[in-house]
Design brief:
- This protein has 396 residues and is α/β, with parallel strands linked by helices.
- Helices cover 28% and strands 30% of the residues.
- The radius of gyration is 22 Å and the shape is globular.
- It starts with a strand and ends with a strand.
- GO terms for molecular function: methyltransferase activity.
- InterPro entries: PUA-like_sf, PUA_sf, RlmI-like_PUA, SAM-dep_methyl-trfase, SAM-dependent_MTases_sf.
- Keywords: Methyltransferase, S-adenosyl-L-methionine, Transferase.
- It holds the Pfam family PUA_3.
Length: 396
Amino acid sequence: MVNEITVKIKKKSAQSYIKGYPLLTKEALVTFPDMEEGVILRLVDESGRFLAKGYHGNQNKGIGWILTYDEKQALDQAFFATLFEEAFAKRQVFFNDDATTAFRIFNGEGDGLGGLTIDYYDGFLVLQWYSHGIYQWKSMILAAIKTAITTRGIYEKRRFDAKGQYLESDDFLASDTAPEPLIIKENGINYAVYLNDGAMTGIFLDQRDVRKTICDTYAAGRTVLNTFSYTGAFSVAAAFGGAAHTTNVDVANRSIPKTREQFTVNELDPAAHTIMAEDVFQYFKYANRKELAFDMVILDPPSFARTKKTTFSVAKDYGKLLEESIAITNPNGIIVASTNYAGYGMDKFKQVVQEAFRNQGREYRIVEQFTLPADFATRSSFKEGDYLKVLFLEVK
């Protein structure tokens, strides 16, 4: 289907690939030949000995992914079908859980194919392609998926424009279209999702365990501030757990009807909760003026965001965001501090937390810690793949 090019790997990089590092980088190559994305790469060391086979696809800091260490392995439909069948089998416990009908069934390099993820929404699949290179394999991959699983319908999200962003398009691919909204369940709670309404569906599936913990352990009787609230999923979980009140703050105007909808599909009255479109940092100023304080503050900001008044990046501003949150958290309250910023490891994230509390003159205790849930498979040789970091912080 595609051409194969042999590329030499520098001696200092070869060992990391032998040990299972899956991301190909330009710096690891002796020379970077002119080639189209999607081409098969046959990796050899500087002595010409075979190392692995992969494909070329520009994504974030890499230029492709390793697929196999077997020189004789054909990269054909049967190869991909086996990958999918093995991955779907590992999620059997999720398929058998009637209380949860949305989860990840294929997680890129964690399941052996970097550049592609597949999420399951009550029988519908959403494929996310992260490079033009992997997208060149689309027809073969789709055929392999269809042999591995029966679906109600398939959608795609293409995330590989010049800036690595989502490409606007009609995302429907095959079989039947999903209802709008499609009501999925997560730990018995309903969530309204839209599979063909832009880059995101209405819920971040990697936070499932965090929502469950909020609901089961920390929400009862508490007042909750949900910042960067998106569609209010954390707040719905808190309300189910007996929260006294939730306040939802997100700069996007469409977050208001989306959040109301999430309460409504659970027969909860959205009017009993505060839902507003406002810059989070402006809201902190308002809360300080009004001397507002909360028993739980949820912080799950995007890695980067720009509004008319502020620019936010996790790398530079998470500590400030956390300090603002500490200032309006009641004694013995809980801050749920979360980030998916790949530039932080958990140790670095804990340092940011420690510094923020020190600057505020407050003490804290880490009472829960989360990384990615079980369906978001990762590999020990690729630490960057385990991107989610969540700390439940009890404020003294």
